[in-house]
Amino acid sequence: MDMNVSQLLRDPIGSTRVFQIDETVDIIGDGKSHKIQGKCNMLRTQRSILVKCALNTEVELTCSRCLGKFRHPLKIRFEEEFLPTLDVQSDTPLPPPEEASTFTIDEQHTLDLTEAVRQYSLLAIPMKALCKKNCAGLCPACGKNLNQGKCSCPAPDTDPRWSRLAELK
Ligand SMILES: [Zn+2]
Ligand SMILES: [Zn+2]
């Protein structure tokens, strides 16, 4: 996801560009290609290019309850500053950013969004994914996926504190 921003770097502070993104990449390293679509706004600031992206993709997740695989839409939203490594007017190297984790624009004035998109995609993936809100999960005794129907296991033992109540019926 490379963008050439040499012109934007030469533009006055406050200049903007909009980049449409429509790419298929293995963004989260799961060996699958994900179609990523959306747009990124870029703003020339005094020292950097401020990038604001709103992207959408879809990933395959494993349900934490029934272990079934399902497609999950992912909204990737972020705002990050990208610092140039070369002064665009004089072509002289700039001092490296203080924080090693800062995103940079390379010597060819290429702003590569891949790493930022990867990091924010991983953040957007739910920790405990459910294939649906009321997923019935697996039977603890036979392991059958209860979304596909009941199994023939006996009902689990009821709490003895309720048995008196059951006798009343
Ligand atoms: Zn499930
Ligand atoms: Zn069962």
Q: Helices, strands, pairings?
A:
Layout: E1 2-4, H1 6-10, E2 16-25, E3 34-44, E4 49-62, E5 69-84, E6 103-105, E7 110-112, H2 114-124, H3 163-168
Structural description of this entry:
There is one protein chain. With 169 residues, the protein is mainly β. The chain is built from 3 helices and 7 strands, in the order βαββββββαα. The strands form 2 sheets. It has a 5-stranded mixed sheet with strand order 2-3-4-5-6. Strands 1-7 form a two-stranded antiparallel sheet. A hairpin with a 6-residue loop joins strand 4 (49-62) and strand 5. It is elongated, with a radius of gyration of 25 Å. It starts with a strand and ends with a helix. The mean pLDDT is 89. The protein binds zinc ion (2 copies). One zinc ion (ZN) binds next to loops.
Structural class: mainly beta
Distance between the termini: 67 Å
Question: Into which percentage range does the β-strand content fall?
Answer: 35-45%
The description of the largest β-sheet is: 5 strands, mixed
Spatial sequence of strands, sheet with the most strands = 2-3-4-5-6
> What is the tally of helical segments?
3
Number of strands: 7
Classify the helix fraction into a percent range: 10-25%
Which molecules are bound in this entry?
zinc ion
The 3D shape can be described as: elongated
Keywords, separated by commas or semicolons:
two-stranded antiparallel sheet, 7 strands, 169 residues, five-stranded mixed sheet, 3 helices, binds zinc ion
What is this entry, summarized?
With 169 residues, the chain is mainly beta. The protein has three helices and seven strands. It has helices at 6-10, 114-124, 163-168, and strands at 2-4, 16-25, 34-44, 49-62, 69-84, 103-105, 110-112.
